[in-house]
Amino acid sequence: MAFPEGDLKVLFTTWKTIVKTFMRRKLTFPSDRLPAMSGTASILARPKLGRYVAGLWEVDLIKQLQWQCTGDDKTERSYVYRAPSGSWVLVNCEIRFYMHYDNMEMENICNPQILEINCRQNTIDPFGSVKRGFLIITSLFQLGLLRFMLAHRVKLVQLRR
Q1: Distances in Å between the alpha carbon of 126 and those of 25, 28, 64, 151?
Q2: Where are the domains of the chain?
Q3: What are the tens digits of pLDDT across the range 55-88?
Q4: pTM recorded for the entire structure
């Protein structure tokens, strides 16, 4: 499989398409999700994408956190640790990414900033399964945006301070 060398938009669009297609598959063991994607991620990896963190690329991380479950699948989270809570790896459902690459509205309104990314792998494979991880983000928030997100069933992750 050959991946485009083009700009970041093309790389991220390709990755999101792969993830959406992959999440339609039913794995016998959902804990195999990251190891199953590790070969594809390692082929796509480029220095300009930054680190690969539990199924997400560092440079596009804010946009990749904007996903939701779709379809009739029962949305259930794993009780066995697979990935940090913002990663699509954690759920057993088809997904779609909520924001399109060119839609900068969320970033312009909220101005999210990543303060810290911490992810520990289970093995030496930087694209494989994850032992633990967390993400600290700071952001502005507006009540009108919250109402919009709730009306459209966008998942919110509560962070402790």
Answers
A1: 23, 23, 18, 37
A2: 8-151
A3: 999 988 888 888 888 866 555 666 677 888 888 8
A4: 0.74
